[in-house]
Amino acid sequence: MLCDFHIHTCMSADSKADIDRVIQTAIQLGMTYLCITDHHDIDYKDGELNFLLDSRQYYQTLLKYQEKYRKEINLLIGVELGLQPHIKKEADEFLSSVPFDFVIGSSHVINGIDPYYEPIWKKYSTEQVMQMYFENIASNLEVHNNFDVYGHLDYTIQYAREKDKEYSYTKYKDIIDNILKKIIKMGKGIEINSSGLRKGLRSTLPCFEIIKQYHKMGGEIITVGSDAHIPEDVGADFEKVKELLIEAGFRHYNIFRKRKPVDILLS
Predict the structure, then answer these.
(1) Which of 53, 104, 225, 266 is an S-S bond match for 40, by CB 3.0 to 4.6 Å?
(2) Is residue 79 classed as helix, strand or coil in its secondary structure?
(3) H/E element, 197
(4) In this structure, how many other beta carbons lie within 10 angstroms of the beta carbon of residue 185?
């Protein structure tokens, strides 16, 4: 069973998921590892939600659950860090405050604007929004290196008016290939985020073409995450994800312990 390395609980501003229920769901699914990765987004300005974690309180809370379930599952402590070029100092200070097992670096805003909200889609075409989103990722990679995998590389497409109906990797090939090349050169990885499959998209985030291209370019580090915000979504569509991994050419996926990747063979 694939291990879920992108999970949100009630410690994320956008989730009310009970931590016990999240962990128990993973146990029921037969998972051997689970990593909770609640949101920490520095200088997030859109909406009314506060996506900041108290790192020490967060870590100590999860240590208690780690001990509580230690005979049933290996619970690891991670975080999903929202990246923007100007928050590097604050991000590094946050990550150095506790010994995380795993860090997802994610882009949730485009020049400070959250694409979850409608105004950006009214002002720009889908192609313009996606181009700006990938440019923001490229800018982040010029500044940030304190993460383990880059999350949901084409995240923004799920909020487009027609979702991914006209979307394809080939439209943005040059900038996506540069992003993948940079990630590989940095010794980092990407994730397959299964949430796209339950949000009306044709594929995962990123799309299969990007996953295949990442492998073709020599990318080896890849994690699997549901991006669950409710217990029922833990491990969602992982059988499909496993098929995509194998079809893309992977023979393993990864978990992380103490910020180090561990290969798990696909059986």
Answers:
(1) 53
(2) strand
(3) helix 195-198
(4) 10
73-106 as b/e, with b when 16 or more CB fall inside 10 Å?
A: bbbbbbbbbbbbeebbeebeebbeebebbbbbbb
The pTM of the full predicted model, rounded to 2 decimals, is 0.97
Q: Which stretch of DSSP H or E encloses residue 137? A: helix 126-143
Tokens for 121, please give them. Answer: 């889609």
Mean pLDDT, the chain, rounded, equals: 97
Q: Is 164 helix (H, G, I), strand (E, B) or coil?
A: coil
CA distance 126 to 148: 29
> From residue 112, how far is each of 46, 80, 86, 160 by CA, in Å?
8, 17, 11, 18
The encoded tokens of residue 79 equal 């975080």
CA distance 265 to 135: 34
Q: What does residue 212 show for φ and ψ, rounded to 5 degrees?
A: -65, -40
Residues contacting residue 95 through CB under 8 Å, at least 6 positions apart:
79, 81, 103, 146
Region 73-99: what's the mean pLDDT?
98
Dist. CA 132–CA 123, nearest whole Å? 13
Beta strand residue intervals within the chain, DSSP E: 33-41, 74-82, 102-106, 149-150, 189-193, 222-225, 252-257, 260-265
Closest CA to 156 of 209, 221, 109: 109
Contact indicator for 200, 243 with CB cutoff of 8 Å? no
Q: Which helix H or strand E contains 181, and what residues bound it?
A: helix 173-185
pLDDT digits (tens, 9 = 90+) for 42-66: 999 877 789 999 999 999 999 999 9
Q: Are 255 and 3 in contact (CB under 8 A)?
A: yes
Cα 205 to its chain centre, rounded Å, is: 9
